[in-house]
Amino acid sequence: MSGLKIFPVILSGGSGTRLWPLSRKSYPKQFLNLSKESKNSLLQQTQDRLFDMRELDDPIVVCNEEHRFIVAENMREINVRPNSIILEKVAKNTCPAITLSTLKSLQLADDPIILVFPADHLIEDEASFLKSLKIAIEISLKGKIVTFGVLPTSPETGFGYIESKIELNFKTLQGIEIKKFIEKPSKNIAENLIKDRKYSWNSGIFVFKAKTMMDELEKFEPKIVKTCKKAIENSRKDLDFERLDEKALDDCPSISLDNAVMEKTNLGVVVPLDAKWSDVGSWNSLWDYGEKDFNGNVFSGNIVARDVKNSLFRSDSRLIVGMGVHNLIVVDTNDALLIADKDSAQNVKDLVEELKKNNYLEATQHKKVHRPWGFYFTIAGGDTWQVKKIEVSPGASLSLQMHYHRSEHWVVVNGTAKVEIDSNEMILSENESAYIPLGSKHRLSNPTKFPMTLIEVQSGKYLGEDDIHRFKDIYGR
Questions:
Q1: What is the CATH number of domain 6-278?
Q2: How do the domains of the chain map onto residue ranges?
Q3: Model pTM?
Q4: Three-class SS of residue 272?
């Protein structure tokens, strides 16, 4: 494969609501660390597991515009500079995202191999994964579109299934032609499927040559190709990001690659994957994946349990004490607590939708909010006041801004802050403070090589995040 261009494409547009309250729209599961074996986020692990494949080019990442700075920071932390970070204003499912990425790859190389990975999967046996991946690449060179069939371990109703024309061999890893795809089945159907080695879980991972995929897309979904070509051709660079022509995508159909191409093409091949894979699609699947104690429990955080069985307990900070309970999911964050029977875990997404309809901010937002310059954490508040912890990364700076409805008081608790208020500029050290009157132009910066933390006390008639008038911003917001 010498001289062959291979581009990883990482799809990072999911919201992960089935893992609420840990995963939310503002900070979904691909940015979380759900594995005890790694300190990295799922997105970082997706890129990291390809480290030994020296033929690879830098990745193309597709993400929601809201998450662009989180994606960029995740990549920077593992010393990866993507070829492109493509921003989606509105998610249109996997087929448009993959089409956009494939078109982008063809701007960078003649006919590269594309490896498509969702950013939110767990894979424990990376050696087995790479073995299956290399076989898939060889098959794709013959003009096939390859996906991976995972060896089922239970009658899972949250996954789709692939039926191959003959039984899969998880030792030889031979690629087999695909007969059909099966959407998420009922429990009874799933129990029958896993008894037959022709059926495997659908991993959502793909390998293909760029021109092969574009030919099939032109055949089956010409409207998607037309709108995506226009969106890419009229895109513009914004710092590390590629902003698409939004109007071009208005009429783009929202459809998965499975429905758009894989169910119709005669080029589909499934390669067996036995690498302890999970799409972490629910708390139940995380319990299935996790390392269990002698009572079948998966515990994370500060947990004390007595006579607890077959349960998942997770705490971000507070002590959770369980007694005499079985088959439970208990997840505690700093602003929400989920208690559910394991058999109801697939319904969490519906619960989040209900919370949204009833205007619960916790449905979509964390108290910790990430920004390109660092993050802030809401400590407490009332109708006319609010207290936040603000951490500014080394060398970073907030925008030059003003507020129409609130004043602010800053107290530095760690590090050094540069503060600009109207025409005045000052350097504050620990335990020093500054007051920003309502209507004053101001900016906060960290001029050092170390993180800086301060406490912000807001006071005013309106404290919403949209009460910001920006004059200058190095992040182009």
A1: 3.90.550.10
A2: 6-278, 289-357, 368-472
A3: 0.89
A4: strand
423's CB contacts (< 8 A; 6+ apart) are: none
Per CATH, 6-278 and 368-472 having the same topology is answered: no
pLDDT in tens, 299-318: 999 999 999 999 999 998 89
User: In sequence order, what are the residues at sequence separation of 6 or more whose Cβ sits closer than 8 angstroms to the Cβ of residue 465?
Assistant: none
| Cα radius of gyration rounded to whole Å, the chain | 24
Distances from the Cα of 93 to the Cαs of 10, 162, 223, 317, in angstroms?
13, 19, 15, 35
Nearest by Cα to 387 from 411, 365, 415? 411
Residue type, 183: E
Taking only the tens place, the pLDDT of each residue in 404-439 is 999 999 999 999 999 999 989 999 999 999 999 999
Region of 288 (left: φ > 0; alpha: ψ -120 to 50; beta: rest) is: alpha
Closest C-alpha to 33, from 21, 18, 24, 23: 23
Beta strands in 161-290 (DSSP E): 161-164, 176-182, 199-209, 236-238, 241-243, 268-273, 277-278
Whether residue 323 contacts residue 330, with contact meaning beta carbons closer than 8 Å, is answered with: no
Neighbours of 393 (CB within 10 A): 16
The CATH code belonging to domain 368-472 is 2.60.120.10
